[in-house]
Write a structure and sequence with these properties.
heterodimer; A: alpha/beta; five-stranded parallel sheet; B: 14 helices; globular; disordered C terminus
């Protein structure tokens, strides 16, 4: 894609989020200066007050769309970006703040703010792809910095990023971690969750809690019946699907089906 | 995107009347802006505008299980997730009447040392130092001084590696649970990071000496400092709340002494001491209230960085942070040396209806959590007060005092200096705006 004498321009944008995915770029301590030498980091407010003009060759977008102002701003970002990559669960699934989508945001605003009229917010928190076309979605809460470097490098060289869409189970197998559900009866979201984290939770003795969102072809209905068999209560089945990727289609649909029961 | 660029303009032709606007504050976490208005040579308005979108954490915590709070509240901040996890577990263990074993307590402290190192090194080298040296960013700084930036990045990495070892990953660690840890390391794992920490300790000492040579504006402010105070330790995960003007209370009395207000220009609430108003939390407050709890070698290093036992110049907070990085390295090495894996990584915690209180020292200052849970362990009320919300008033007061004698500077210079004054605080705007209160004021 980017084959010219000038260094390609990178921009990093923030919407509703915790900054953790942008931080993953700064956490590439060993690669950061190399990235900076290959690209012009033209717009990255968390790192620099210098703001180079667009258009940008790659825009990384963190955060979900949750205010009227941000719904407009994302369109402007799209217009000045050749490639737009969303990073993290907020930008790809609406984030934890998408829990409002199952509730009455007006009530929350009154509950939480003494002067709700000062606070502007939308009824929903939605992924960037619900507003503008997105070239690639990098999952995770937080994203994996290895995958981030892969995505940046792939777009620099005009190829698709090699980011797997299989489940966490594959990573467990590769790592040699015995299945926590089979061996210990620990409820685990691994079978329906996309790989990327390195299957750290099972390796560290707990079940996966789904921070990379649904895998390509998940069967949450089946997995939830297994969980039920392990003694998990109905309310907890709904809650476990409603965390950082509550707005992702497969998790949302199954949680609503379970709630309706 | 014109509005996203720094814009500084004259409000009118009247001499010494100007408006300094920085529409998007750079090199801070989250989204905020700065407005300072000067009329007839007087600062009439200084506002830190926070427009980071609200995320309603305290609302959706209601109805969740008490065991979920550490994973959920970690997502308030990517830079200091451990702080949220630690305040949450402290509050939940308080309400359930649980005390963890000493090795678990020390392991929490060790994990938190990793976060202090990572967060402080990020702020010192990537967010703050470029201001003093006149660069737009650390990447620009690295062109002229690569060794400085590389030292900072490696120091940050040492903190991140410690967090990843104990927590599974550096952003949003996965091992922390109410009652202890899902997983604890063996001694050999820690020996591996100890080598890196020894390098980090030397680099931190160099950082203190280097930070001490930066050019500091001549500016002091008479703050009321608020921090935790522990009988023997430099405060990280517990203590009483004390201040330089005589406050000395247990954490559970926080709400009796502190109150939050909602003002129109900010999505984050302003905290104040009910009787005295603005106060300051963070590295300066911890240092000033707990200098005597630092090991002699760290106190000596602080002196080499040009500090006495008390520091009132917020610009020197970069030196104080460096001193705290050094302390975190020393303390981590001490804790690794002491470490014996606990008998059990966690104790089973049975929920008990009631209200629990937790407060720990996030890198940016005290982070207060309060939860009410029912007998089934379901959260019925949550309150979270992050450091930046507590510092907002002090930040605005600082801007007023700082700008007044400098209003004849050219606009661009003054705007940059105001940004720097805000960056002294290392404000965490994403955190601040997720701060909510359950006190409802319907007019």
């Amino acid at each position: 894609m980017v084959r010219s004498l000038r260094r390609p321009k990178l921009a990093v944008w923030k919407f509703a989020s915790c900054d953790g995915c942008q931080l993953s770029l700064l956490n590439c301590e060993e690669e950061l200066l190399a990235i900076a030498s290959q690209m012009e980091i033209a717009y990255f407010l968390e790192a620099s007050r210098a703001t180079g003009r667009g258009p940008y060759d790659i825009s990384l977008v963190e955060g979900s769309i949750s205010t009227p102002h941000d719904a407009e701003r994302i369109k402007a970002v799209r217009r000045i970006s050749r490639v737009l990559v969303t990073i993290g669960a907020c930008a790809t699934a609406g984030g934890i703040q998408a829990l409002r989508n199952f509730s009455q945001v007006e009530e929350w605003r009154r509950l939480v703010y003494a002067r709700p009229e000062y606070v502007q917010t939308l009824e929903t928190s939605t992924p960037v792809a619900a507003h503008v076309p997105v070239d690639f979605e990098l999952r995770g809460c937080p994203i994996s910095k290895t995958q981030l470097v892969e995505v940046i490098s792939a777009f620099l060289h005009g190829r698709r990023p090699a980011v797997p869409s299989h489940s966490v189970c594959m990573e467990c197998k590769r790592r040699g971690t015995p299945c926590v559900m089979v061996a210990r009866g620990t409820p685990c979201l691994g079978p329906i969750t996309q790989a990327g984290c390195g299957a750290i939770c099972p390796a560290y003795g707990r079940g996966c809690y789904g921070c990379y969102g649904p895998t390509e072809t998940p069967n949450p209905t089946s997995l939830m019946s297994w969980w039920k068999g392990l003694g998990v209560e109905d309310g907890d089945l709904v809650r476990v699907l409603r965390t950082f990727n509550a707005g992702a289609e497969a998790f949302r649909a199954e949680s609503e089906r379970r709630e309706a029961h | 995107m014109r509005e996203q660029r720094l814009s500084v303009r004259r409000a009118s032709a009247v001499k010494r009347t100007k408006t300094i606007k920085v529409n998007y504050l750079a090199r801070v976490e989250g989204e905020g802006a700065l407005d300072v208005r000067v009329r007839g040579g007087r600062v009439t308005e200084a506002r830190l505008r926070i427009f980071e979108p609200p995320r309603f954490f305290e609302a959706f915590l209601r109805g969740r299980r008490f065991t979920e709070a550490p994973d959920i509240t970690a997502r308030i901040c990517g830079i200091c997730p451990v702080a949220y996890q630690m305040s949450a577990v402290a509050a939940m263990e308080d309400v359930c009447g649980v005390q963890v074993e000493e090795p678990v307590r020390l392991l929490r402290r060790l994990l938190y040392c990793g976060e202090w190192m990572e967060s402080h090194a990020l702020h010192i080298y990537l967010l703050h130092a470029p201001d003093f040296l006149g660069y737009e960013s650390a990447i620009h700084l690295a062109r002229d001084h690569p060794e400085v930036v590389q030292r900072g990045l490696r120091l940050k990495k040492a903190g991140n590696d410690l967090m990843a070892l104990l927590g599974g990953r550096e952003v949003h660690p996965i091992t922390v649970r109410v009652g202890g840890f899902y997983h604890v390391p063996v001694r050999a794992d820690l020996a591996r990071v100890a080598e890196q920490l020894k390098w980090a300790r030397d680099a931190a000492l160099e950082t203190v000496r280097w930070a001490g040579t930066l050019p500091f504006p001549d500016y002091e402010h008479d703050y009321e400092f608020v921090a935790l105070r522990h009988p023997t330790e430099y405060p990280i995960i517990e203590g009483r709340l004390v201040s330089t003007r005589g406050l000395d209370i247990p954490v559970r009395d926080y709400d009796t002494h502190f109150v939050e207000e909602h003002i129109p220009h900010s999505n984050a609430l302003h905290s104040r001491l009910r009787v005295r108003g603005a106060y300051l939390v963070g590295p300066l407050a911890r240092y000033n209230l707990n200098f005597d709890r630092l090991p002699a070698a760290v106190q000596q290093a602080a002196r080499e960085g040009g500090l006495g036992p008390v520091c009132r110049n917020p610009f020197q907070s970069i030196v104080v942070r460096s001193v705290e990085v050094l302390y975190a390295c020393e303390e981590a090495l001490r804790l690794i040396d002491l470490y014996q894996p606990p008998q059990r990584p966690f104790v089973e915690v049975r929920p008990r209806a009631g209200t629990g209180y937790g407060c720990t020292e996030a890198p940016r200052g005290i982070l207060y959590h309060r939860y009410t849970i029912d007998g089934n362990g379901v959260i019925t009320e949550a309150k979270i007060v992050p450091p930046t919300a507590q510092n907002q008033k002090a930040m605005e007061e600082d801007l007023r005092a700082f700008v007044a004698p400098r209003i004849d500077l050219d606009h661009a210079t003054l705007a940059w200096q105001c940004e720097q004054a805000i960056r002294n605080y290392d404000p965490c705007i994403s955190c601040a705006t997720h701060f909510l209160t359950l006190r409802v004021d319907r007019e």
